[in-house]
Write a structure and sequence with these properties.
Two copies of one chain form a homodimer. Chain A is 24% helix and 24% strand. Chain A is of the alpha/beta class and 438 residues long. Chain A has three domains: 65 residues, SH3 type barrels (Roll); 207 residues, L-asparaginase, N-terminal domain (Rossmann fold); 113 residues, Rossmann fold (3-Layer(aba) Sandwich). In chain A, a hairpin with a 6-residue loop joins strand 7 and strand 8. Chains A, B: One of its GO terms (molecular function) is ATP binding.
């Protein structure tokens, strides 16, 4: 394996039998470097990357250097991370992502893994709070998540709760965690316990990692929570004070790198987890309590499109994708608008049985298409206003609805039914965050 | 004119010579209502809407009612709202939108207007702070704004500054105000004074209207500001305390209805306007000062597309729109990702001379495509990371860049040049707003 190496250098390394993770020596002029061959991501094909014993990585021009193999990498850990099959109080389902990535210090490679053994090794305190059963379902980066996988996750959740788990933790990459949370939420009409999606923004090899606190908190929540809803749990602040469980259909990743990137939009989160005290503090009383059985229906039709409107958008673009879609979610401007040119297109789409729903690219607040003429014309063209639903949540709900209705009227009815709290009718001043400029 | 009326009722009203704004009487059973005929937006074709003298609107079933015309609506105001031609210190260019909408109490119709006379009539205090010249350039709702109009606005701005205005105010609908702000910003490489886009979230007939405070503040800012940049000025808080001028390329409408909907993303705003004291308080020192001349180049190529990535997106959708686009801005997940399936499509696009740039749907933070494998593969496929630029700003910049470069390398170079502060390299903890959940 020579990840990242190309051209002459890759051939040269191969010819010497050198692979990533092997211990090598490089001599060049008066310089001599010894260390482990690391993957290279340089644009320069001639750069060789070595992790030295002092922990630093160094990149050197290979041309003119004398390379020698000192020793092959250590044999890989062959333990197969599998479910232990124990009837744990808390089931952890791993799908991949930063939270379950283990950096192999020997090679620098990032390996997704989360067997029960490895969790207990990584976070031994967890066994003091719950009996854990962990299982690797997928090992994918969340940007590669797909509707088919949502169904597999939902099935595993049902199986786990049916077997008696008090709650299920889903370790997930943060990129698309809120989409998956919505998908699982729409898949269950009743659950015996909560589903807690948990991720991390910084991998466990970094001092600022949020992995262990988030995972620890998610286990507390899965076991102790009075609610049986789908939640996303992440850091509550950039410091390690507490974690927050957001309602899965009302949360969004709002920052590329902060540990408190996930925030509830247009709604109050479900709970805070005071992880230093092992307690859950509910932030709202109107949650769905634990049910008697697990009723699941997890089908999705991915023939949808999320159209983000902007000035100058060409209506022909919509015509071009018409035959590939059964439904569209618009992220319109302001209260739910597009330019009036689109009225004709939407009228044609809805007439031909394609659902067209409106959300706002403002994210906060709710659409109201009765205020201005443009909105009223879009309403007349059959565009369905989707209240304060997030564009992403609406899209996932549309995939679910298309798989559960025969015609556009049926889809519309499902889209407008408040299934799992995706609509919040009670907005107040406190739901909008505060910016401070001084 | 019988806006909103259809079918039998429309024909019946027409046969009686009744139009919107006319005074009518409706008798039905024991009920008798007198008032002004209002536009109807009911789905029920039989509903007639009347504004009564007490100010309330009432909707009545027309079938079986006895309708009579009492008097025709008052003749329309025939003053032509035009530029006064005076060499005002502050030029106000009106493009339409809520801020310049005047509700005619007689008819309920919303009429965009902002002649100098009307402004002074509406906001007489303005003449105490500046000599105003106002002009109506367009009267459109901002959701109908187009790249062609941006050029016309830029030309009018140049003309006004060249004639000696200390600053220009552009009254604009809030829906697409930040897109226009970016467009004007990219159109000027030097300006002698500021351009202040101003809008309002609530029309002037509502007690909670922000129209007058925002307009008043924009005039103070246009006259007094030490900077010559394009700014968006709106309420700073939901209360009337102060207004804020955001850098036009770093601002976004973040709420559908709040008066403080506009917020700076990834940057500190330019200034606060303490309108009760007629003063401008700068929030940063690194602004662009007033220049010696006005250098404008305002061309846009609208053959772009803003693609908002989501799990399950079909790569064929991109193929379908390929022939309609010269460039794409992606709103990817997290640090700048899409599923790996898209790698091939993007490689093909960039090879065929279509620019593909990456922003993040998180909005806050910056893309970094070197952290995970997916990002690195997209980089190799030719996708260009666009730092902390907002997706909308990047899209407008792409339209400008496509009109100013011959090939994809030229476009890339322009896209990566920090022209007017669209990239901010100095992020800090304070730029992320705070959510409070208790």
């Amino acid at each position: 394996m020579l990840e990242g190496y190309r051209g002459k250098l890759a051939s040269f390394l191969a010819s010497k039998g050198i692979e990533i993770g092997d211990r090598i020596r490089i001599k060049k002029d008066s310089l001599e470097v010894e260390g482990i061959l690391f993957p290279s991501f340089s644009r320069d094909e001639d750069i060789i990357v070595v992790k030295m014993d002092n922990g630093y990585n160094v990149g050197l021009k290979a041309t003119g250097a004398d390379l020698s193999l000192l020793s092959k990498r250590k044999a890989e850990d062959t333990r197969k991370p599998q479910s232990t099959g124990s009837k744990g109080e808390v089931k952890i389902i791993s799908t991949g992502g930063t939270i379950v990535s283990k950096v192999e210090y020997e090679t620098g490679a990032v390996r997704p893994a989360l067997s029960t053994d490895e969790i207990l090794e990584y976070l031994p305190q967890i066994k003091d709070i719950a009996d854990i059963d962990a299982e690797i379902l997928f090992t994918i980066l969340s940007e590669n998540m797909k509707p088919d996988y949502w169904t597999k996750i939902a099935e595993k959740v049902k199986e786990s709760l049916d077997k008696g788990a008090r709650g299920v933790v889903i370790a997930h990459g943060t990129d698309t965690m809120s989409y998956t949370a919505s998908a699982i939420a729409f898949s269950f009409s009743e659950m015996t316990g909560p589903v807690v999606l948990v991720g991390s923004q910084r991998s466990s090899d970094r001092p600022s990692s949020d992995s262990s606190i988030n995972l620890y908190s998610s286990v507390i929540l899965a076991k102790e929570s009075p609610f049986a809803e789908v939640a996303v749990l992440m850091h509550g602040e950039s410091s390690d004070t507490y974690t927050i469980a957001h309602r899965g259909v009302k949360v969004r990743k709002m920052h590329t790198s902060r540990r408190d990137a996930f925030q509830s939009i247009n709604d109050v989160p479900l709970a805070k987890v005071m992880w230093t005290e092992n307690t859950v503090k509910m932030l709202r009383k109107d949650f769905v309590p634990r049910g008697k059985e697990n009723r699941m229906d997890s089908k999705f039709d991915p023939r949808v499109f999320l159209l983000y409107y902007y000035p100058g958008m060409n209506p022909l673009i919509l015509e071009a994708i018409k035959d590939k879609t059964r439904g569209i979610v618009l992220a319109g401007t302001g209260l739910g608008h597009t330019s009036e040119e689109f009225e004709t297109v939407f009228r044609e789409f809805t007439k031909d049985g394609i659902f067209v729903g409106m959300t706002s690219q403002c994210l906060f607040g709710r659409v109201n298409m009765n205020v201005y003429t443009t909105g009223r014309k879009l309403l007349e063209a059959g565009v369905v206003p989707l209240g304060d639903m997030l564009p992403e949540t609406a899209l996932v709900k549309l995939m679910w609805s298309l798989a559960h209705a025969d015609d556009v009227e049926g889809v519309k009815k499902l889209m407008l039914t408040n299934m799992v709290g995706e609509f919040n009718d009670r907005h107040n001043e406190q739901l909008f965050p505060r910016w401070y400029y001084e």
